[in-house]
């Protein structure tokens, strides 16, 4: 007979940071166990053991059809793939790039974001964005840089960079 057990586990603080398989061994008490070889089970995937951290990842950025300098709604998804709740006031910086790279990007605006994302949670954010009148006419990719001030001390800020899946035209 199989049975799922949900147990709390506090890993040893002396354990170094890394990915581990968890093993569980059932130790029978007074019952007679005819097969001691099947009393241990391992997790099918590794578990990251690490100090608390927030790791933001962005996706789903689509450039809207801008009409001059009138604001347009931009939506994107932020996911917290860390092991601690992301709860703070941060921002998202929008940029325009002719090739989708940060190296030649022109800053458009920075919008405030209030985040409260549990580990593994995601949320779709919507922000109104206007193109500055100083943006040269051309075709651009929309870029978003999440948490540009690194409020969360993100260990891998490369995941904070989103490139739109489409281009927009500035006239």
In short:
The protein has 171 residues and is mainly beta.
What portion of the residues fall into strands of 2 or more residues? 35-45%
Strand arrangement, major sheet = 8-7-10-11
Largest sheet: 4 strands, antiparallel
Number of helices: 0
Number of strands: 11
The residue fraction in helices comes out at: under 10%
Radius of gyration: 23 Å
Distance between the termini: 69 Å
Q: Give the CA-based shape.
A: elongated
Overall pLDDT, averaged?
90
Structural class: mainly beta
The low-pLDDT segments are: none
Q: Can you write the helix and strand succession as a string?
A: EEEEEEEEEEE
What secondary-structure arrangement, pairings included, does this model have?
Layout lengths: L17 E3 L2 E3 L14 E3 L4 E3 L6 E4 L12 E9 L5 E12 L8 E12 L4 E8 L8 E9 L14 E10 L1
Description:
By secondary structure, the protein is mainly beta. 0% of the residues lie in helices and 44% in strands. The protein contains no helices and 11 strands. A 4-stranded antiparallel sheet has the order 8-7-10-11, with no helix packed on it. It has a 3-stranded antiparallel sheet with strand order 5-6-9, with no helix packed on it. It has a two-stranded antiparallel ribbon with strand order 1-4. Strand 7 (86-97) and strand 8 form a beta hairpin. It is elongated, with a radius of gyration of 23 Å. The N and C termini lie far apart (69 Å).
């Amino acid at each position: 007979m199989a049975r799922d057990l949900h147990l709390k586990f506090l890993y040893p603080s002396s354990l170094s940071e890394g990915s581990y398989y968890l093993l569980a061994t059932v130790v029978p008490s007074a019952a007679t166990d005819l097969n001691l070889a099947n009393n241990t089970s391992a997790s099918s995937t590794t578990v990251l053991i690490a100090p608390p951290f927030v790791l933001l990842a962005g996706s789903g950025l689509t450039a809207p059809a801008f009409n001059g300098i009138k604001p347009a709604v931009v939506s994107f998804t932020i996911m917290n793939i860390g092991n601690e709740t992301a709860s703070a006031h941060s921002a998202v910086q929008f940029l325009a790039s002719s090739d989708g790279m940060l190296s030649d990007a022109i800053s458009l605006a920075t919008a405030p974001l209030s985040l409260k994302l549990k580990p593994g949670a995601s949320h779709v954010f919507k922000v109104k964005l206007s193109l500055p009148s100083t943006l040269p006419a051309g075709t651009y990719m929309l870029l978003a840089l999440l948490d540009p001030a690194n409020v969360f001390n993100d260990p891998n800020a490369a995941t904070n960079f989103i490139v739109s899946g489409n281009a927009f035209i500035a006239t």
